[in-house]
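Sample intake sheet
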Amino acid sequence: MSGRTLVLRDANVGGDQVDVLIRDGLIAAVGAAGADGAAGAAGAADDEIRLEGRHLMPGLWDNHVHMNQWALFSKRPSTFHAGSAREAAAIMATALVENGGLPTNAEGAQLPLVGTGFRDGLWPDTPNLELLDAASSTAPIVLVSADLHTVWLNTPALGLFGLAGHPTGVLREEPAFEIEGRINSLPDDVLDQWVEDASLAAAARGVVGIVDLEMSWNTDSWLRRSARAPLAHRVEAGVYPQHLERAIEAGMRTGDALGELITVGRLKIITDGSLGTRTAYCFDEYPGLEGQPNSRGLLTLPPDELEALLRRGISAGLVPTVHAIGDHANSHVLDVFEKLGISGRIEHAQLLTSADTARLGALRAEASVQPEHALDDRDLADRHWHGRTADAFRVRSLVEAGATLALGSDAPVAPLDPWVTIAAATERTKDERAPWHPEETIGVDDAIAASIRSSIAIGQPADLVALDADPATADSQTLRTMPVALTLLAGRTTHTTL
C-alpha cells in the first residue's frame, strides 16, 4: 500500500482502546482512541477500519512449514486416522474408485494416486506389498507417512519409480524423500495455485509469515509466485545441503531480501529420522527392535560431517538450523555447536536429556518446536520412548533453561494454524484426555511471543491481526479455533470478516 494511509479505529491493545495509523506498510502512530495523536493524524487517511474494540496483536508466524506439501495435503486422500495397515490400504482402494481412477497431468498422462498421513507406529500390522497391492494391482499407489520420513508403495508404483523387486514397498529417510520429491513435482501453474489457496487459508488464521523448509530449491518458486500475485505472507526460504553450493555461488546469505516479502532463510540440515518411523537417533534401543540393525534409530549425519557443513555454511553467511529429534542426535548437535562456539537453532528437539536441556539453554540456542506433535504422538512416545517421556517434547523446560522458543507446525505434519500450536503449548491436550505432561505447559503470552516477530509500535511493520476473542481469557476450544476478524500484511488486507 505504498503511499497510502490506513487507520485502525478503536482497537484493544493490551487492554487500552487505541487508534493505529499505518503509512507505507509501517505503523506510523498509536494513540488513545478518539483522541489527538493517531486518531488526529488519521484525519486525512485514505482508508479506515473500525475494529469496535476487537483485540489487536502482531501477526503470527509459523516457524516450520513444508509449503508445497501442505498445499498438496489438502488435495490428497488422508489415512491419518487409519488404525491399521489394512485399513489404510482400504482407504486408498476407496479413494481410487471415488476419484474415478488415477489423476492425470496436463498432457493426460496418468499419475500415481498419492495418500497422506499414515501413522504405523501403533498399528497391529505392518505396511507391506500384499496389502497395498490388494488396493490395486494395476494402478500405482503411494502413501506418505504423517512425519514425511516414510513412503509405502504398491508393486505398480515400485515399477514406475524403478524399484521393481523391492521386498516390502516401504522406504524410509533419504529414499523416501527422493520419492516424495518426484510425486510432488507438478506443473508450476497447478502447484502455485494450490499454494496460493493454502496461503490465503493461513492468512485467515492470522498468519503473516512462514519459514518454508521445503526440500526443493524454493527461492525461485516464491519469486515466481510473487510475480504472479501478491503473496499472503512473508517467506523465509530455507536452503538444504544439496543446494548449498548453488546458494553460495548466488551470494545468498541468511536474511538477504530476495523480494519485498521474501528473504533467504537458514541452512537446514537433517541429522536423524523421526519418532513415528522409529528412526530418531536415541541412546536407548526401541522396544521390539533390540539387537537389530539401527535399533537405536538412524544417525543420518555423523558429527564430523555436520561440523563440516556448519563451517561451510557459516563461512558463507548461511545460519544453520539442524533437525534433531532423538536424544542422542540432539546431544551430537550440541557437541558441535559447543565446538564451533555458536548458539544455532535446533529443529524439533523432541527428546532431550535434562543435561542437554540445560546445555541448550546455556548456549542460548534457539529451539524450533512443534507443540501439536506432542499431542499427536503422545501414545507413540509412551510406547517407543517408554520411561523417558518426561524428556519428550519439552517446552517449559527449554524456556526455563534460557533457550529461545520458535513455535511452528511442521505442516503438513500438523496444521498450518498458529492457534492450534499455541493451544497445544498451553494446554498439552486437545481432547477429553488429561493433559500429557502438563508440567511442560507455558502461558499464552509466552506461546504468542514465540509466534510473532514484531510489536505494535511506531516504525514496526503493519503485520497485524484483529481477533473476536481475547487469547488471555479464552477457553481451550476458543483458543484452538480463535476467530480471526482481520489480517494485515504490511498494511494490506489479506483476510477480513469485517
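Comment: The longest strand covers residues 5-13. Residues 12 and 55 are 5 Å apart (CA to CA).
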